[in-house]
Structures are given as structure tokens and as C-alpha cells.
Amino acid sequence: MNDWLHAVAVISLFAAAIGPGVAWAKDQELPPHSIGRDPQSWASRDGWHLRLGAPQRDTLSASPHRALLAARFALEDDHWEVESSPEAGLGLTTQWKAVHNIFFRLFSGKAFGRCFVFVRPLSNDRMEITFQGGIATRRNIEHTPVKGAAERAYVSAARVWHREVEALLESRLDGRGRRDGGGQR
Predict the structure, then answer these.
(1) What is the CATH number for 18?
(2) In this structure, is residue 184 part of a structural domain?
(3) Is the dihedral of CA 101, 102, 108, 110 positive or negative?
(4) Assigned domain for 133 exists
(5) What are the C-alpha distances in Å from 119 to residues 15, 67, 69, 157?
(6) Number of folded domains in the chain?
(7) 9, 87, 105, 115: which sits with the fewest CB atoms below 10 Å from its CB?
(8) For residue 175, is it within any domain?
(9) Is the pLDDT score of 83 beyond 80?
(10) How far is CA 70 from the centre of its chain?
């Protein structure tokens, strides 16, 4: 086991020494826009492997507009760019964002993530909000050591995102919405 850890450490140091500027940032080819655009109809193609995380749901006391606005602000606060889409309705989709974790990239090759958010009214003032993330990689990570760690990190990040949405609804949203033009962006 120590030999394996030593090998990973040596490879990591070598990769860090040559730098992402040489190996990974040189070609920022994004996955095709259509891959993962709709989490209900995805396919791996063009050399990309898409893996969707399990949908993470929570209920909120808010109107659909306020829930969606809080969801958008929470994504933007984490440096996600939300795509404009007139047909989105009560949903949000982010653009692809590069994954920079060096250990993950050693096993996956180039990797990019994107998020989907759906708001479903349960009653006049109760909403179900669903967060789902997808990751596109150049190599299939299904049977690699990083798969389990990636899944755990995803669930943890989704929980944090849900807490941020709740905090926005409880505090900052009113002032922020007015400051940003009443939520129109």
C-alpha cells in the first residue's frame, strides 16, 4: 500500500511541476453543449463520459420565484454561470465549469461539471427544490479510486448548496433582489 501511495505522490508532484498550464489548461475544450443539458436525456459521446449525481431534494417555504432566485444566487455565489433559457421555466442549468482537483484529474483526464436545479410547487408556499450535478470526463471513472470520493464530495456539496439557498431565503434575498434590480438579471 505504501508503494501505491508513494507512486501517487510522485505522479502528483510531477504533474504539479509541469503544471496545469502545460498539460491541462493548454486545451480548454469543453464538452459539447448538448451533453448533460437535460439530465433526463443524456448520452456519452464525442469522447466524453457523463456521470450524473443522484438528485438531492429539499423542501422550502417560499414562492416559486423566490426559491428559484435563491437557487440562482447560491449558484452564482459559488462562481457558476447560469445559462439563459426561456424554456427553463422553474429550472436552472449552469454552463460547464472545469474541475481543478489534481487527484481527480489524474484518473479522469479533463473534467467539467454542470448543475441542474428544479423547483416544484407542493402548495402555495411550499416548494420542493432539487439539485443535480453532472460531471463530464475524458476517461470513464466508473471503476477508478476517485469515483467514491467524487460521489461523497458531490453529496456534501449539494447539502452545503441547500443550506445556502435556505440562508438566502431567510436573510439576504430581500436586499439582494432589490440591489440586483428586483431579481431581474
Answers:
(1) 3.30.530.50
(2) no
(3) positive
(4) yes
(5) 41, 7, 10, 18
(6) 1
(7) 87
(8) yes
(9) yes
(10) 16
pTM of the model: 0.73
**CA atoms of 150 and 3, how far apart (whole Å):** 23
- What is the band of 88 on the pLDDT scale with cuts at 50, 70, 90? low
Q: Among 167, 177, 139, which residue's Cα sits nearest to residue 58?
A: 167
| DSSP sequence for 91-119 | EEEBPPEE---HHHHHHHSSEEEEEEEEE
- Mean predicted confidence (pLDDT) in 110-135: 92
Cell numbers for 67: 426559491
CB 106, CB 138: distance < 8 Å: no
The residue with greater pLDDT, 103 or 17, is: 103
More confident residue, 173 or 163: 163
| Amino acid sitting at position 118 | F
Q: What single DSSP character describes residue 27?
A: -
- 45-48 contacts at long range (C-beta below 8 A, 24 or more positions apart): 47/138, 48/136, 48/137, 48/138
pLDDT at site 124: 82
**C-alpha grid cell for residue 68?**
428559484
The pLDDT, as a whole number, for residue 28 is 66
Find where cell 466508473 sits: 142
- Which 8-state DSSP code applies to residue 172? I
Q: What is the pLDDT of residue 15?
A: 41
> Domain containing 111: what range?
2-179
DSSP state of 50: E
Please indicate, yes or no, if residue 185 is contained in any of the structural domains.
no
